Amino acid sequence: MSKPKPRGPQTQHTGVYKIDAIKDAAESLNVNISDVVASALASDVEYRIHQVIEEAARFMRHGRRTTMTTSDIEQAFRVLNIEPLYGHTASNPPTFRKALPFPHVAAAGPVYFVEDEEIDFDRVLREEKITLPKGVSWTAHWLAVEGVQPLIPENPPAIPRDPEIDATKAETLANGNGPLAQNAAAKRQQQQQQQQQQLVKQVLSRELQLYYSRLTESLLPPSNDFAKRTAALASLRNDAGLQALLPYLIRWVGEGVVGSLKEGMQSESDGRILEVMMDVISALLENNTLFVEPYTLSRVLTQHSTTYPSLSPRIMKTLLLALISPGKSKGTREGAIRGLVGVGKEAVRKGLVEGGGAKVVESECRNAADAGPLINSVMLIDEEQDALRVLQPTSDMVIALDPSNQLDAEVLAQLRELLGDLFAQRVAENAAWARKILGMSRSDEEL
User: Fold this and answer.
1) How much is the pLDDT for 265?
2) Helix (H, G, I), strand (E, B) or coil at 98
């Protein structure tokens, strides 16, 4: 049996990728390879090219395109865990041009190359330099803190209020109690409501804006539907999710109260508005889902007086002006006294004792014999006593001042000078309390 003749190595390569390209690449690296190795490498390179093209074709088909782009090739490289080629983008595809034929190498075939753009340096230097914009970034800021929008550049500014009625027109309207004054009160309330609605539209959702409009329309005159008003108050008392509306409701109530208590402009409609506002405040306080504490004076001072040292003196100055300024209404003075009590003992001392607030209140109570509600109001006097009681709580052993005693007589004279006769007589029933208001002790008198 004859043995088969051994076959020699086949160096003929029939693939697309030529052996000469492999040898040229090897010679550029100073590596000499045989024809067998070059043929094997050419086959492997051709296989890899087919693999990349197949993967790129999948991306092209998924992109609903018929033209393969460099981004498809780049995605194929990523899938095959191959480092991508840099400098080629789909937005700026390279331009290939066909080179001129080589007469001395007829078998070389057509050759293509990437055409480089010629850049004119004179034109580049003459052009205006373009500053690159900053990259995309994000920052965090407080849109609202417990329903209160902080005044920072990122948040929309508050809409300025329209100018109020001038003093002459207000005085003219105040002298009449007929339809003209009522129309003025209704017009003033309507303007405040429109301003509030414009402010609400900027930061609230459409649902909350609609809720706010329906709520205010149901509560205030001329709406006299008792069922709607009861339903609106029940909603404020029980509904959750009203925290975003809380600052607007508080401002709405505050403006309504101030507008109704303006001196010389009270009418029957103002009384009804005040009653509704008090019901709204009561409903908000009964709602357990609302956080009302930041809107109280004492909470603001406790939380922010350390950061803003001038906050307490400014509030005290405002309250003192409201208390002692002439022409203020009873509600304004009562609110000032409550505010001083909320600020603390030092504010009560400076406002009522040193600032003369107690004497102003006493003089108004004495001179208001025909002032209607003021003469029948005992709350202001009781509130005054409560404010003075902040300085020194009554002890178990109460000893009154003795006018026959020279030292007690001097204390009583000072009380009358600072507080007036009315409050001096009430405070004189407790000698320790009276001395504490004057900032003295028993030992100081003996000295």
Assistant:
1) 59
2) strand
